[in-house]
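Researcher: Going back to the complex we discussed earlier. I've cleaned up the inputs and rechecked each line, so this should be the final set. Can you rerun the prediction on the complete assembly and write out the structure?
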Amino acid sequence: MYNFKTVAELIELAEKNEVSLAQIVIRREMELAEQTEAQVRAKMISSLEVMRAAIKKGLQEDISSMSGLTGGDARRIEKARLAGKTVVGDLFSRALANTLAVSEVNAAMGKIVAAPTAGSCGILPGSLLTIADHNNCTQTEIVDALFVAAGFGVIIAQQASVSGAAGGCQAECGSASSMAAAAISYLLGGDNKAITSAAAIALKNILGLVCDPVAGLVEVPCIKRNAIGTSNALTSAELALAGVESLIPADEVIVAMKKVGDALPCELKETSLGGLATTPTGCKIKSQLRQNSLKTERNE
Amino acid sequence: MSNLSAFDILGPIMIGPSSSHTAGAVRIGNLVREIVGTKIKKANIYFHGSFKETYQGHGTDKAIIGGLLGLTTANSKIRNSFALARQAGIEFSFFPIDLSDVHPNTLKLELFAQDEKKTVLIASSVGGGNIIVTELNGIKVKLKGEYYTLITLHHDQPGIIARISEVLQQYNLNIAEMEVLREHKGHLATAIINLDQPASEQVIELLTAIPDIETIKLVNPIA
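Model: Rerun complete. Updated structure for the full complex:
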C-alpha cells in the first residue's frame, strides 16, 4: 500500500522503502489505476507534451483571449529577454515568458494541462520545464519531478483545497507554486527535507491571496499571478536547496491554508464580488464586455 | 477524496480557459448527446447566472456546441465548433434566462432531433469539470455521466421495478444506484438506474417488452 494523506506519510513511505518521493507517487498511481509503471509514466509523458506544446504556441503565435482582454505578454517578455533587457537575468526571464505563454494559451481556448487548475496552469510548466531544460535534464527525470508535483498536489487537495471558489487564489496559484517548488527541488537533487521545505515556503508566501477575477474571467489578474507564482516557486526552491528550512512543517502550512481559505469571505473566492473585480476599472471592463456580448447576440 | 489520482491534480488535459465554464460545458454537451441518442437538428441554449454573465469570455457557447457534436474536453476543434455545427446542418441559438434558485453555472437546453422529437434539459457545471443534469423533460433527475444509466418512462404500477431488476439479474448486471420519480400517483413515472456494467441491446429489448414500460433508454458514461 502506497497511499499517503500527509507530507509526513509520503516521506515515511519513501524512507521505509528506500526509494525516492517520485517512486512512491508512481507506485500509488499504479495501485490506484491498476497499471504498470510504464503505463502511468506514458500518461505523464502525454501531459508533459501538452505542456511543451502550450509553451511553444504561446511564444510563437499571436495570441488573444476570447474577450480580447489579454494576450501577447509572453512575447513581450521574450522580446525583452532576447534584447538583453532583464532585471534578474536570462533564466528568470525565460521562466516568466514560458509561464505567461501557457496561461495565455489557456485564456485563448488553447490546449493545456490543469495544474492543478486551468487558472493556475502556467506555473508548473513555466518554472519546472525552464529549470529542467537549463540543466539538460532527461525526460525521465522531468516525469519523475512531475510525479513529485502531483504528489504534493494530491496532499493539498485532500487536506485543504485546490479550488479558488473554496479557498481563494492561495488554493490555486499557491498550490501550483508549492507543487512546482517541490518538483524543482527534487529535480535539482534536493533531499526530502529540502523538497518539503520548498513546498512549505512557497505556500506560506502566498497565504491569504484572494481570488477576484475581473468580469469573472480567468484572465485579469490570473495570468500575471501565474508569473508571480513562478517567481514564488523559484525563490522557494532557491532558499530550500541552499539549506533554508521552513520552521512550520509543510503539513501544518497546508492546514493553515485551509483555515485561511475558510475564513475568507465569499466575495473574495471567485465570485467577482470583491477585490480587483469591483474596482472602478474592473466594473467598467465588465460592463463593456457585457455590452459587446449583447451586440453580438443582436447581430446573430 | 482519498483516492484522488495524480492525474486529477495534473489534469485534465483540456481546452481552456476554465474547467467549470469550458470543460464542464463540453461534458454537459457530451452527456446530453448521449441522452438524446439521435442526431440533433436544432438546439436552443439558455444561459443562467455566471454562465449568462461570462459565457463569451469563457467560450462556454463554443464548448457546449462542441460537446453536442461529440468533441471531448481536449479537442482543439472546440474553438471552431460553430462552423463544424453549421457544416453538420445543426441550427443553434443562445438566450439569457433566469432559472432562479439553481447553481450559478446552469444552462437549459431545448433540443430538436431529426424526427422533430423535443428534449428539454437543465444541467449545471459544479466545479473541476464535474457536471449534473438536474431536469429531463420536466422530471427532476441526477445524471452525472459516470455510469451506464437506464432511464425509463413507465406507467406507475406495482411490480415494474421487480420485473426490471429480474432482467438485470438474469444478465448479471449490478445496480450501483437507483431512483424512481413520478409526477402524480398512477400516471407516468421515471426510473433512473445506474449500472456498473453496460447493458446489451438484448437487455434493452427485454426491458422494452415489459408491459407498462413506455420507453427505456441506455445512456453511456462520458469521458
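Model: Worth noting: Chain B has two domains: 6-143, 148-219.
Researcher: Good, that matches what I expected from the previous run.
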